[in-house]
Amino acid sequence: MEEKFKCLVEWMQVIAYSTKSVSFGQDEYEFSDEAVQRLKTKIAEVITRSREETSKMEDIQGLLATKDRQIFYLKKMISRLVQGLRRSNEAEQDTSKESENSEAQKRLHYLESQLEEARMQLAQFEKGSSHPTLESSALHESFRQSLADLLNRSGWICVDSEEGILGVVSRVLITLSSKTEACSSLQSRLTEMKAKLSDFERKIADDDYRIEHLEDENSKLCAQLSRSSHKSVEFSPCTVDLEGCNAKLIQFLHELQDQLSIDPVLFSQMGITDQRELVLENISKLTAPSPAKSDCDLAPRLHKRIQRLQDELMSRDLQLKSHNQKVAKLEEQLAAARKGETEANEKQAFAEQRIARYRKTEAEATKLKKEISQLKTQVKENSEFQMHLEEKLERIVELEGTVKNLEEIRHRQASKIGELIAARDAEQAATSRKLLQQEESQRIRFTNELHETNQLLEQLSKEAHELRNFRSVVGRLLGMRVDQLAAPNKEIIHGVERLLKEAGGNCQSRSTAFSARSVSPRKALHSSSARIGFTHEYCEEGYAGTPYHRSHPDFIGRDKSRR
């Protein structure tokens, strides 16, 4: 500390002697206040610039951090989209497989049921092959009718004739060929869309690689900015030292003021230069040579003073050179920072362009997904229609085989029947007429019985509806909800019995009738017994409509009386 204080005192003495006017040509060695003030202003400007540059560096770092967050968010979005695409593809594949399996099982069950029905029909036809020609022709017509109904149910308008069935089958084959062509075209289009999707995924991978490259460049720029900020702060110790020297100078001036016994109030109101001049005047007065001394003593002192001032001037020049070098370095750092800022702006613009391209590619991807989904639905529909047509064709081929077999059976049966008819016509012409008459009479009787039974059923349904209405009315009168009862008949009977008991118990005390909405239980029982008796009688009549009861003597008399 003593050495530093000595250096400071010597520096103050140099400043004092440099500012003092010398009479013998020493003005060229003066170090003026203006030069010091300019140096101070330059140093202050450099410090302000360095602070501005550090603030700009901090802003750039904040922008880079925001860009890093945006890039990370975009990466997350890209990964989510890729995962969504994979999941959607897997889900579509699973759903398509499940739907195909379920449809195949349904078709298999349907085909098995149809095959069983055809086998049953064939068994019935083989069993009834010994019957006469009318039954075989009826079976053949029913088979053609079932085939025509099957084609009509599947959407093909068909007439129950062999020519109509063959025409519909030919049309089905034509439509099947056209649908197969459409399916092939859709499959080719699906392959093209898959190729486009693979190209789009490749583009996404390239974008990811470019984003990673931009992140690396961003980290490099951040490192450069951190290094440049450290370099810009290198000049701060010099400023701190200068401020400390200034404070020490002021303190030294106050100490000299105390030693020289100067008025403190007047000294505090002066500036630094005035204080320095006042102190130098007092020192010069104290150190002024007496007239007794000779000029020989003054010359070496002046020479020493000149040498010291020259040395101080050289040191000041060196300090100025070092300060100029530092200022040049700071300007270079400022240019590098500006260059880094321009590069960061360019990177930001490039990143925004990449984001716009990514959004555009994302929109194209959504369009491609929609087209792929539409194509998948079309292919699925076409495949379902194709499978349906294939099943129909298989069914048609089976039916054609069965038709051929039935035609052969029909021809054989026709030949046999022809022989039997010839023999029968030759031997039993009269018996055949009797049999035909008996069959006709039986058919007429059966039709009459069927008509009567139908009428009886209609009447029974009406009676049942009336009985249900009557039950609901009785339940409503008794305060019950018939629809919500588990056993409504029992509940209504118990209610009527309870009402009869109450009526029997209160008949002596009550003289008035029920209200307009109530009905006496005796009338209700009478009407219900009448309805039940009528229904029982009608059921007996309907049951007596069978052939066995019609032959009974009791039924004959009742039937005559009814007619």
TrEMBL record:
Tell me if Coiled coil is a UniProt keyword of this record: yes
Keyword presence, Transferase: no
Supply the alphabetized keyword list.
Answer: Coiled coil
Q: Which InterPro entries does the entry link to?
A: CCDC170-like
Stated name of the protein: Centrosomal protein of 70 kDa
Which ranges form a coiled coil?
101-128, 183-217, 306-409, 443-470
